[in-house]
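Summary of Year 1 activities. Much of the first year was spent building the evaluation harness for sequence design. The harness presents a backbone, in tokenized form, and records the residue chosen at every position. We chose the following record to illustrate the format because it has been used consistently in internal testing since the harness was completed.
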């Protein structure tokens, strides 16, 4: 077979696999949500980052691993809840998920999300290997954001496992009107605190912070502005994970016309070893992220 034929076959298979991952995320999310009420308790284990796992984290991870792992074209599955990635097939694409981002919000019944990233290559992968990424937001309405082929679309997810495209080509509004910064304020660096105070002084902006990155990032995608989970004095690498949070959210926000940073460069250019490596995260309108980088310089 000629090389071009092989490439065409590979590309067609990859497109089918990516569509398959998106369909599985969309059809599994209603089940994850339905399974939450009895699972607002801690599980017996900690996750690989040493954080308390909720029974819901484990439940969502098991469902996604089983279904995504059975897809043709997926070679590896990894999640924030497992120490190692799992070999699930012979495909060249790898899928990394945060099954329930913000699961500490389960107790107060607040927003949470499911994040997914599809990489062309083995895990841990690089941000520039991403071929699709997105997230589900469990809010009053269940929505899903998907970035692939250079555009970002929004879907509404229904309880019967169907999904409906509601917005095509989503982009960040030019004038950002909200901001949300994680971590304890006394734990922020002086430079970040000075930047935060400057952002607060602008009367056109309002604080919107809910403690679940997906809820907070979706506010930025909707209204524009800036979200940060910064470097902390006690945690120079910040809290959020590169493979499961930094890269996929970097991909979504940059595909939607925004900017992202780890403090000095795009989140997609972060170079870290290890499946569970962490990174500071700053995402939002280009002008605000540029100001942030200048403030931290
Ligand atoms: P999990 O994936 O373990 O839920 O942690 C991620 C997260 O909940 C983010 O959604 C959020 O931005 C951050 O941690 C909040 O952490 P903290 O409350 O410790 O500042």
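For this record, the design step produced the sequence shown next.
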């Amino acid at each position: 077979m000629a090389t071009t034929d092989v490439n065409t076959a590979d590309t067609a298979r990859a497109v089918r696999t990516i569509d398959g991952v998106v369909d599985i995320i969309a059809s599994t999310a209603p089940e994850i949500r339905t399974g939450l009420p009895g699972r607002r308790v801690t599980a017996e284990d900690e996750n690989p980052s040493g954080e308390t796992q909720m029974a819901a984290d484990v439940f969502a991870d098991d469902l996604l691993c089983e279904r995504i792992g059975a897809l043709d074209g997926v070679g590896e599955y990894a999640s924030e809840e497992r120490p190692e990635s799992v070999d699930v097939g012979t495909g060249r694409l790898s899928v990394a998920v945060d099954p329930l981002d913000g699961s500490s919000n389960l107790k107060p019944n607040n927003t949470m999300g499911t994040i997914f990233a599809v990489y062309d290559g083995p895990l841990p992968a690089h941000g520039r290997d991403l071929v699709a990424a997105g997230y589900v937001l469990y809010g009053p309405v269940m929505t899903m954001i998907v970035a692939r082929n250079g555009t970002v679309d929004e879907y509404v997810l229904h309880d019967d496992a169907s999904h409906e495209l509601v917005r095509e080509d989503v982009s960040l509004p030019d004038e950002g009107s909200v901001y949300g910064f994680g971590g304890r304020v006394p734990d922020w660096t002086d430079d970040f605190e000075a930047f935060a105070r400057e952002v607060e002084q602008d009367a056109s902006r309002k604080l919107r912070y809910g403690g679940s990155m997906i809820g907070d990032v979706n506010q930025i995608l909707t209204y524009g502005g800036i979200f940060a989970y910064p470097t902390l004095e006690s945690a120079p690498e910040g809290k959020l994970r590169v493979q499961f949070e930094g890269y996929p959210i970097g991909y979504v926000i940059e595909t939607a016309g925004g900017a992202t940073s780890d403090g000095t460069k795009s989140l997609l250019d972060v170079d870290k070893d290890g499946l569970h490596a962490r990174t500071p995260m700053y995402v939002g309108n280009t002008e605000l992220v540029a100001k942030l980088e200048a403030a931290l310089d």
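The helical segments are 3-34, 55-69, 190-201, 213-223, 242-255, 286-296. Quantitative recovery figures across the full test set are reported in Table 2.
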